[in-house]
Amino acid sequence: MHQLVPPWLEKLLETSFFSVCRTHGAAARSESNMYCLDCNCDAFCFYCRSSRHKEHQVIQIRRSSYHDVVRVSEIEKVLNIGGVQTYVINSARVLFLNERPQPKSGKAVSHICEICGRSLLDALRFCSLGCKVVGIERNGNTSFMLEEISSSSTRRGEEELREGSQQDIYPPTPPSTSSTRRRKGIPHRAPFGS
């Protein structure tokens, strides 16, 4: 089962971030929000990265509503994140590291996380990387390995090109309508007076 989950991932999910760095505590950017995939050790700060992890694979952890997130652009280089819900926060696409408790609502939701039951925006299986790890350990029917995503997306891309569905990605621009009203001249204000 563990060959489906990279050895550093479970440690990453257990790591506590955003404490003050013990070495660089007096410096301005000393919060521990970096994680080295090569060393697989504790969180560290910006200055530790420059000195100890210069040539290593490092990802930066960010915060969203008191929960740890990672940018999709950083994590998808090393993990197959298929099936995990992503969100756009501060104009960056991110995903959550661990499950987030959600109060039960009376609303019917169409998509929920298979592990924790959190409502999802899209028809996906998991709300976070942590829930995907649990899903892999329970079922083994998904993986974080990149080979899986690259070969399947290549096949899918070849099929789309063959079928000509690439044209559907960019729908034609609708013709402009001349019914839009244009302002004519300078607007006149009501006269001042009493």
* Beta-strand segment tally: 5
On the 0 to 100 scale, the average pLDDT is 80
Return the string of H and E elements: HEHEEHEEHH
Given as residue ranges, the uncertain stretches (5+ residues, pLDDT < 50) are 148-174
- Strand arrangement across the biggest beta sheet: 1-2-3-5-4
Outline, from the CA principal axes? extended
Helical content (DSSP H or I, runs of 4+)? 10-25%
- Give the terminus-to-terminus CA distance: 84 Å
- Proportion in β-strands: 5-15%
Report the biggest beta sheet as strand number plus sense, adding barrel if it closes: 5 strands, antiparallel
Secondary structure category:
alpha+beta
**What's the Cα radius of gyration?**
24 Å
Query: Number of helical segments?
Result: 5
Overview of this protein structure:
With 194 residues, the protein is α+β, with helices and mostly antiparallel strands. It is 25% helix and 12% strand. The chain has five helices and five strands, in the order H-E-H-E-E-H-E-E-H-H. The radius of gyration is 24 Å and the shape is extended. The chain starts with 6 loop residues before the first helix and ends in a 31-residue tail after the last helix. 19% of the residues are buried. Residues 148-174 have low confidence and may be disordered.
